[in-house]
Amino acid sequence: MEQKSGGQFVQDMLISGDDGGNIIFEAVVFLEQAYIKRKARVKALPGINRFLMEIKAFDMEKDSVQAVVSGHGEILSVQYKETYVKDAPQQDLQNLESKKNELKKQKNVLIQEQEIRKKQTGFLDSISAFSEAEIPKQIKTQFPDIKSLESILEFLGKNYENLGRQSHELENGINDIDKDIDLIETQLKQFKKSGQTVQKFIEVLFNSSEENDIGIEISYSAANASWEPVYKIDVLPDLSDAVITMFAKIEQNTGENWENTSLSISNAVPVKTTALPDLKTWYISQWSSEPVSDDAMLGAAMRTPVEDKDLIDETLFFDMDEPREEAEFVHAEGINLPISFEYRLPQQVNLDSGQGETLVPIFTKKTDCEFFIYAIPQKDPLAYLVCQINADKEMLAGRLNIHFGGRFVGTTLISDKRPGEEMMLSLGADRGVKISREKIRDKKTETFFGMVDRLSVARELGYKIIIENLKDEPVRICLLDSIPVSKTDRIQIKGVEIDTKPTEIDYNSHTGVMLWDFMAEAKSTHEINIKFFVKHPKNSPPLGL
Predict the structure, then answer these.
(1) Are 388 and 372 in contact (CB under 8 A)?
(2) For 388-403, how does the pLDDT look when each residue is reduced to its tens digit (9 = 90+)?
(3) Considering the entire predicted model, what is its pTM?
(4) Which terminal residue of the chain has fewer beta carbons within 10 Å of its beta carbon, N or C?
């Protein structure tokens, strides 16, 4: 701390951010920024005291500055200040440059080792090539016997394998160093951009009624901090239970290190505008040009949202062990605010600016999960085991890592869901259920329901879907299929016949899409037959059929 006196203030004190008197003790990370709290303990003299608490954030919101003083007296003003100095602190820059140079040295060593491995591989290549080349008679020797030949082949095989593995490890090491160098260069750019000739302070003017020890707390919003949810779901092999764990992936590059700091995360969205949105009159007019399709006129705002695509490859599960008792993750304290949720971590954290991503657990809870087989044989011949859960208001959009019976299955993405909205998670392909879809009829004729039209073609199409439950227990099947829908009156679809009535028609408001939801008994086979006629101009076959 640097203390001066005289002038209009009885005390003019600089509370540096480099010493222990001015520390960050709390941080709340939002989706795009962080709310920082600093504190200091100082002695106030009777009269007006000026305290300058230094901050080192690269980019902060000046209007967000606040201060609280605990002591005898009153606060006169709180405001953000900048001071230009001739010799700004360069220690951070020097440390970053030194670290960058050290990483470059490590990279050069790895590159040299990589060159050595290439030469060693080249030597082995020359031995292999020499054995295949035609040797002049004057240097030709007796061909090695089988035992010697096996030794040579074993030598080449082992060394090729070792060199390949070492080269791969060296390549990974070089890539990791390149990532670290890129991160340091980003930090250096931000240091230069922020201007190290400027020192930033929050000025607190305090009129003390007496000499006393006071506590000062300041708060402000800093940019370059963010978090996003990452989920993990564990499903037991016997499908008796499912547990969801939410993690927060935090990244902060504010320019300030958070050491022994109480950390919270919030899903609140900061207000970006001062005015509420307004709705104007909705005018429509007739196009003077050729009419466009309904989809084009409606535009992106009215189109059906794209459903989450399952990113999980088919997986087989063998001999799954019964799960053992595990240590649980610590839980963050949930705080339900009027417009958001906030989670406060139970332990203090250390997050240095620019150190990369940090993953911390937020909550773990059991969830009601309904399991069934989900299949769309028109698109995919596999039958997928699906866990269906209901989203709650705490769940945000994010990555979901799926574990089944203690094994990692894969990763998918979940979008924002309204509370109570259903969400389906794929656990992989289930080999215990086989589903096939076959075209059994495709016949052309000029007669359409007894009428002859020489300019048109009528096609009779038929499909057979077979569902086989190979399991020893019944399973619920949810199967989707569809019939074509015409976008023009020049193409007609008629005579639709389905021998097994679907549970729902126009499923999820998709015209022509049908859902069959039923229980398939153990060792049973079910069959669905679909037939329809399509009439179209003879010289203009329909697209998508």
Answers:
(1) yes
(2) 887 776 777 888 888 8
(3) 0.61
(4) C
